[in-house]
Design goal:
Length: 352
């Protein structure tokens, strides 16, 4: 199923599935019961462009905190719950918009029935998350190692539990730290299940390694029309996840109002400290909610030609740089003033 053909679910005011839009999400690293810290982190994620955020809900205190957190933030919330069905019920009653829970892991059938009943009552969808590293023992023994077939088999079991209870507001994820396995299992899942797919490469690592692995796997899937919501998992500040995710979606024309920063790789012609300019401009540019292309070029030889398709650009030299707007040179700027002038021109363009 392509993303426009999946069965849509509604999480708060968001639709996931059944459309071309891919929803950006992340997960808090705070203790949910620490309301102030959690709210602060969610607001930072919102400013970065996050549309949906998940929180670990481990106990009753975490569940109770949901009500107050929802009052102070502006995006839907997901509760990440394992094993204890009572915590799932408490989270739903506290106002959570979606739960992440594997129905096969919460004990007796009557426990699942209770969770499904309350989700029905409050219109709360359920994400079933299949992880290659935590497959059921019999499936792992059957296949000998994590495989796409085994992950699909595991998902079938969990999905059947919900479908047998008449519950279809389901989202699925199939996460692995192996890029090839990740691509294979999501491709198979898109053929087997009608439900929206949550894309992610799990345990991807640092900002560098995660960006590479996630872009490799998820870029393929998104280009194929697979995936309805996405999280780039990075060890560290979750705001970094949103920055990387937005750039990935922009590169595939799946999101608007996202800036594009082009930077020259440099060569022997570079005669100024371009790296310091790029380092200062990157957070400024990527923090904008504007579809604007900014180019920082290393010299005045090829710079003007290479930057002609940018909205605004600077092509630096030893003592000065050429300020280029829409392909036309509009000023010559001393090297020490390049960052300031570039920022000024960008702000003018945004305000126009």
């Amino acid at each position: 199923m392509k993303r426009t053909e999946t069965r849509p679910i509604h999480v708060g005011n968001l639709q996931i599935g059944g459309q071309q839009k891919v929803i950006i999400q992340s997960m808090c690293s705070t203790r949910t019961k620490d309301i102030d810290a959690t709210v602060k982190q969610i607001l930072a994620l919102e400013r970065a462009g996050c549309e949906l955020v998940r929180m670990a809900v481990i106990d009753e205190e975490d569940a109770a905190a949901i009500t107050e957190i929802k009052k102070q933030v502006h995006i839907p919330l997901v509760a990440d719950i394992h094993f204890d069905y009572r915590i799932a019920i408490a989270a739903v009653k506290a106002g959570i918009d979606k739960i992440r829970l594997n129905p096969g892991n919460i004990g007796k059938r009557e426990n699942v029935v209770e969770v499904v009943n309350v989700c029905h009552e409050y219109n709360v969808p359920i994400r079933i998350g299949i992880n290659s590293g935590s497959l059921e023992k019999d499936i792992h023994e059957k296949y000998g190692r994590p495989t796409a077939e085994g992950m699909i088999e595991s998902a079938r079991r969990h999905v059947k539990i919900l479908e047998d209870l008449g519950f279809y507001d389901i989202c699925l994820s199939f996460k692995s730290s192996d890029v090839s396995l990740c691509v294979e299992v999501y491709e198979k899942a898109s053929e087997v299940f009608p439900y929206p797919l949550h894309l992610g490469v799990t345990e991807a690592g640092t900002k560098l390694t995660s960006s590479i692995k996630s872009s490799a796997a998820l870029g393929i899937l998104l280009h194929e029309g697979i995936g309805d919501t996405i999280r780039i998992s990075i060890n560290g500040d979750p705001v970094d996840e949103i920055v990387v995710c937005r750039q990935l979606l922009r590169s595939l024309h799946l999101i608007d109002a996202v800036p594009n920063l082009i930077a020259c790789p440099t060569c022997g012609r570079t005669s100024y400290d371009i790296q310091s300019v790029v380092n200062e401009m990157e957070p400024f540019v990527l923090g904008l909610n504007k579809d604007i292309t900014v180019a920082i070029m290393g010299c005045a030889v090829n710079g003007p030609g290479e930057a002609k398709h940018a909205d605004i650009a600077i092509a630096g030299g030893k003592d000065e740089g050429l300020l280029i707007k829409k392909g036309e040179i509009i000023d010559r700027v001393p090297t020490a003033m390049m960052v300031q002038r570039l920022k000024e021109e960008i702000m003018k363009m945004i305000e126009e």
